[in-house]
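Hi F.,

I've been meaning to write this up properly since the lab meeting, where we talked about keeping a consistent format for the predictions we share between groups. The idea is simple: the sequence comes first, exactly as it goes in, then the structure tokens exactly as they come out, then a line or two of notes. No screenshots and no reformatting. I'm using this chain as the first example so we have something concrete to point to.
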Amino acid sequence: KVGSSIGEIATAAEQFLGKTRQDMENEAREVLEGHLRSILGSMTVEEIYKNRDKFSQEVQRVASQDLAKMGLVIVSFTIKDVRDKNGYLDALGKPRIAQVKRDADIATAEAEKETRIKRAEADKEARKAELERLTEIAEAEKINQLKLAEFRREQDIAKARA
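Output, unedited:
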């Protein structure tokens, strides 16, 4: 857009007087595209793909100087999408996607393993408690049988004396 200071307005008027809005937009676009190409040449594809903000800021920083000479200022500049025709950028993301999937699979397997271990420990504790309960019952029955046998023996002795 045209800057808001008197100097910027005067510069824009001088640069674009007699030109259409479309002409002004085209010139601004050409400046931005030129700087885009220049910066694209100085960064690796990976840097551009992984750090769009840095790329965007660099374009804005460099282009702002030339646009200021035309009385224009950049209000906002955002890189919406970075793509290529050969699928290189898609290929860059595949190892990370595979790594994330692998990590998720491992985490799921670990969680399932922990669940099985905890379930087995709980089952073991339950069986142990059940065996202890059955042992206590058996011991109580044994004591009861011994007392009953002792009682009968005492009765038999008492009958024999009588």
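Notes:
The chain has a mean pLDDT of 86.
DSSP finds five helices and no strands in the chain.

If this format works for you, I'll send the rest the same way.

G.
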